[in-house]
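input
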Amino acid sequence: MLLSWLMAGAALCMQAQQTAVKAVADGHYFGARQQFERFLDETDGGAKGREEVEALSLVCDYVLGNPGTAERMGEWVKAHPLSQYADVLCVFRRNLLVKGQRVDEALEAFFEDEAKGFSIDTPLPYPLTGLSDEAYAYQNVIYRLAGERLYDEGKYERALGYLEAGEKTRTSQYKQGMCYYNMGKFDAAYATLLESASVDQDEMAQNAWLHAGIAALQLSKKSKAQQAFLNASKMTPNATLREQALYNYALTLHEQNASTTVTVMEQFLKDYPTSQYATPVSQCLTEVYMKKGNYSKALSAINKVQSPDASTQADKQKVLYNLAFQELGKNNVQEALTYATQAIGLGKQDAEAYAESYYVKGDCNYRLGNYAQAASDLNTAINLGGQTPAGKLKNSGYALYSLGYALFKQQKYNAAITQFQKITEMTTAIASVRADAYNRIGDSYLNMRNYDEANANYAAAKATDHTMGDYSMLQQAYIEGLRGNYDKKVDIINQMNAEYPASSQAAKALYEQGRAFVLSGKEDEAAAVFSSISIRYPGSEYAKKAGEELANMAANIAIQDSIAAAQDSIATEVAKAPVVAAQKLFNEGEYQQAEQQLNKAIDNGIGKPYWLARAFILLSDIYKAEGREVEAKQTLESLKANYKENDDIQSMIRQRMQ
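output
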C-alpha cells in the first residue's frame, strides 16, 4: 500500500513538472516558477528531472528579475557543466551582469565560457525556444565590451573580431578603427576612424582625426591626410594630440610647398618650443627660409627650439655662416664679423660651415686692417677646408688671395709671394686674378729691392691679362727710376700712355715722368709735364702733387738766386775789406803800411773787379802822396786801359789824371 502511495506521488510530481515545463514554453514564468519550487520542495536531490527543474527555475528567475539569480546561475553551471542548459544559463548570467552594470564580471564570465567552449550558436532547447531573442539580446553588447577590453589590453587582432561582430557605438568604432590602424589595415582604419570622429570635439575625435590622417598618408592620400591633421590640430582637449597633429599638418604642407607652410611651422614652434618635434620642424622651416635666402628668419626659427640637438646646431651654424657671407657681400664688415664669430663659437657642428666661417672672419679682419689676425683666420680656414668632404674650401682661391694680401700688408713679402704664386698656378682662377697675383709678387720683390724678379713678374702680369698691364708697366718704369735710368723711365711711361690711353694710372704715370725729368735736370720738360697734369686731371691726387712740384721748382730757383746774391755780397765784403783798411791807413798818413796791405791783397786776389780797381786807384793816391808821380800816372793809365765796367771807376781815373 505504501509503495502504491509512493508511486502515485511520483506520478503527480512528474505531471506537475511537465505542466511547469509547458508553462515555461508558453511564457507563463511566474506560475511555472511556483510549480518548480513545489517540485523541488517535495523531491530529494536525486529525483529524476530535478536538474532540469533547477535550470528552468533559474530561467524563470532570470525573466522575473529575481535578485541573486546571476550568482545562483554561476554556481549551478559549475555543478552541472554538461547539462543541456549550461550554455544558455551562462549566456543569461552574462546578460544579467551586463544589465546590472557589472561589466568586469560579465567579461570575466564571457572569456571563461569562451575558453570552455560554451556556445549558443545552436537553437535553444525546448522549452526555451521562445527566449531566443532574449538570449541573443546582449550578445552584440558583450562582443563589443569584449572587443573594447581586448583593445585596451593591446590584443588588436583578437579584439577586432569581437568589435566587428559586436554592437556599434562611437567608442567601439574608434577602437575598431585603431585595431585596423595597428594591424596595418589603413584603408579600413581611415574609413572607420572618420565615422568615429564625426562632429564631436572631444579627445576621442581628436585622436581619431590624427590617426585617420596618418592612415591616409600610408595610402598616399595626402590631401585627405592634410585635412584630417588640420581637423585634429584645431581641437584642444588633448595638448599632446594637438601637438602631433599640428606637426603632421606642417609636414604635409611642407611637402606640397604650400604657401601657408611657414605660418603653420612658426605657429608650431611658438606653441611647442620644447616639443620632440621642434627640431624637425625647425629644420624644415630653416630649409624653406634658406631656399629663399632669408637667413635672418631661418635663424629666428632655429632660436625658438629650446633644446636644439646636434643637427639643429649644425643648421644654425650654416645659417650664421650664410648671414656672415651675405653681410660681407654688402660690405657690412662688423655685422659679418659678428655672425662669423658666432658660427665659429658653435664648434665643428658642420665641417664646411665651420671652415668657411673662418674665411669670412679672416676677410673681415683684413678689411678692418687687422692683418695679423686676418692671416691667422685665413690659415685656419684653409687648413679646415682640407678636412671637409670636398677636401677644400668653396672659397679656397679667395682665401689664398686674401692671405697673400694680409701677409703683404705685414711686409712679410716672402710668405706673401708663396701664397700669390699658388694663385698664379690655379688654372681655375680667372686671368685678372692671376695677373693681380703676379703684380703683387712683383711688388713684394720690389720692396725687397730684387728688381730683376720684380720686372719678370710685372711682365708676366701683363702677359696674363693685358688689360692690367698699365700698372705693371708703371712699376717697371719706377724700377728704372730707382736704378737712375731716367730716360728709360720716361720711355716706358710714353709707351704705357700709348698702349693704355684711358688708363686709370695715367695721372700717376705723368707725375712719375715729371719726377724723372726733375731728377735728370730737365726742369723745363718737368714743368711742362706737371702743368699738363693740373690741366688734364684737375682735382686729382696727382694734380695736387704736380702743383707742389711746380711750387718746389719755383722755390728752388728763388733760393738759388738768393744764395747767389748772398754769395756775391759776401765776396764783395771780402774784396772790399782790405781796400777799406788800406784807405784808413792812408788817411792816417801811414802810406808805407797802406801800400804793403794793398799789394798783399792784390797778390792774394781781390775777387771783385770793382774793388780791385779801387785798390789800384788807392795805390796811385799813395804814389802821388809820396811824390812818385810817374808810378802814379802809369798805374792810372794801365787801369784805364783794362777796366771796362761802366761805373764810377772811370770818373775816379779821370779826376786823378787831371
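quick obs: Residues 541-587 form the longest helix (47 residues).
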